[in-house]
Amino acid sequence: MDCFVIHWRFLTAVLSCCLLISGGSAENDSKPNILLIMADDLGIGDLGCYGNDTIRTPNIDRLAKEGVKLTQHISAAAFCTPSRAAFMTSRYPIRSGMASESSVPVILWNAASGGLPNNETTFAKILQKQGYTTGLIGKWHLGVNCENRTDHCHHPLYHGFDYFYGLPYTLVSDCRSGLPSEIMSKLQDEILFLNQVIGLGLLSLILGRLAGLLPVGWKVIGLLSFCGTLCFLSWYIPFGLIRQWNCIIMKNNDVIEQPFEIEEASNDLLQEAVHFIERNKERPFLLYFSFMHVHTPLSEDKRFAGKSKYGQYGDTVEEMDWIIGEITDSIKKLSLENKTLVYFTSDHGGHLESRQMGKQTGGWNGVYKGGKGMAGWEGGIRVPGIFKWPGVFQAETTINEPTSLMDVYPTVVSLAGGTLPEDRTIDGRNLMPLLLGRTHRSEHEFMFHYCGSYLHAVRWHPKNSDAVYKAHYVTPIFSPEGAVGCYNTIYCTCYGPGVMHHDPPLLFDISMDPSEMHVLSPQTEPKYYNIIKQIQAAVEEHKNTLTDVPKQMSFYNVIWKPWLQPCCGTFPFCSCRKNSEMHSADDPN
């Protein structure tokens, strides 16, 4: 009898374990894999599915054809760092301190102390707790360290990612030899000019002393030489070695290539993405694939050179599209297509003023005015937005309602079975009802468009109306006169003499006038005064939700600090090449 009881208890325990395991497996099976793909500096008009007929993007176009295309998808900022901070947190950058009050709108160095604050909860953190394996492959640009070069307080692994392979910073022209520097170029010019003045002065003093024309002591010349050397080093150490400091690849917490080779890095990121998917095919995963493309310097991959009708920029876009095809094909080959949500977007609009050697190297924003750096005009913030999930989302669906990159956070958290943080304001909205066709109305009535920490414009989508109004309180002053962009300064500024304030604000109905060409007035819009009143009331209510937070983008937090520099080897002799673990990608042709 005792033997029977023991056997019965043993069988019960085994059955219970099996039920728990199968229940856990069923729970995991109900959670979709999530693939988020973000391009860098891509214009909405660069894609075939958004009207481009000169650049071939068949893989992105296929995502749109087989899924849902958003036509009024809005970035929370028109620069990389604040836009990506908002994407990761579902909060306007000003709420997390990631909005700049200075002329420096983004994190400039891997060795800067600013970055995504420790107390922010990213969607990766929530999905990690829900049993997802989380990976970030590609560009981060939200900081690395706080107090020393190994604390990694802003690093992706600290913000919910189990695996990171990519650029902790971004791609800049400094990463390719022979191109002009992008980082603090005006300050560099001033320091170099000062060095030249000191050098010429010293040379004159030495020649005058040797010729007996100037009664200057050698001690004075030595002291001036020492000051000149310090001045030169103040330029050379941070700026002369930018490629060494900023153009690095990290694998988790380790620097594995310093500096990296651009074309090799593109291939490596692709292979890392494919391998991540293969490693995690049996369990739910979140993969955030963040492109270097199409930020300058543009790709020089010989496989794509001269293939597009739009020069090197078009070649780079077509290379990006091919990479997306390789990643989505890997999902299909593993029979994961029906259980994987794929999302594609860009961090902000194309960079209109980007030119090298007289050629356009920035994107096209279609019919929308403005571009990168212009947070009020549509061209700076209206970006592609494509969702695909076979069997769940209706193919060939187009949604014209206002949506935001910040909406991705609550959407994927909902799909993962998580809950949103309740101790802070979340500005995004769950898109699933809209994507599934259960509602045809966006939950966004008002959207606020910041340039740095300065509110430039507000969008209003009145209830029970198809209209979308936008009021511009501040607009950049284009240069030269007559241009649509700030070509004299490369980027438009957010404040100061480079902007114009409007009281009353410039008002547009972008549902009827998406190019923002026709300013509304009391004579042309009967509801003009009521519209302005409603928008102003929303601004006041929004401002009441803001609290003071540490300024991550202060000048001190964005400058280079040698003690924070990620380094492969012994600082300052930082240099290494990755080992040859990576396999080369198949030729696209």
Protein architecture, described:
With 589 residues, the protein is of the alpha/beta class. It has 15 helices and 19 strands. Helix 6 packs antiparallel against helix 7 and helix 9 packs parallel to helix 10. It is globular, with a radius of gyration of 26 Å. It starts with a helix and ends in a 15-residue tail after the last strand.
Write the layout of secondary structure elements.
Layout: H1 2-29, E1 33-39, H2 58-65, E2 68-74, H3 80-89, H4 93-96, H5 123-129, E3 133-139, E4 163-167, H6 185-210, H7 218-240, H8 242-246, E5 249-251, E6 254-257, H9 262-279, E7 285-290, H10 311-333, E8 340-346, E9 355-356, E10 359-360, H11 378-381, E11 382-388, E12 397-399, E13 403-404, H12 408-415, H13 432-435, E14 446-451, E15 454-460, E16 469-476, E17 499-509, H14 528-543, H15 555-558, E18 569-570, E19 573-574
Parallel strand pairs: 1-7, 1-8, 2-12, 2-13, 3-4, 3-7
Antiparallel strand pairs: 2-11, 4-5, 5-6, 8-11, 9-10, 14-15, 15-16, 16-17, 18-19
Helix pairs in contact: 6-7, 9-10
Any descriptors?
15 helices; 4-stranded antiparallel β-sheet; globular; 11-stranded mixed β-sheet
Number of strands: 19
The overall pLDDT average reads 91
Outline:
globular
User: How far apart lie the N and C ends?
Assistant: 74 Å
Percent of sequence in beta strands: 15-25%
Model regions low in confidence, pLDDT < 50 over at least 5 residues: 1-27, 581-589
- Number of helical elements: 15
Helix content: 25-40%
Strand pairing plus helix content: what structural class? Answer: alpha/beta
Rg computed from alpha carbons, rounded to a whole number of angstroms: 26 Å
Largest sheet: 11 strands, mixed
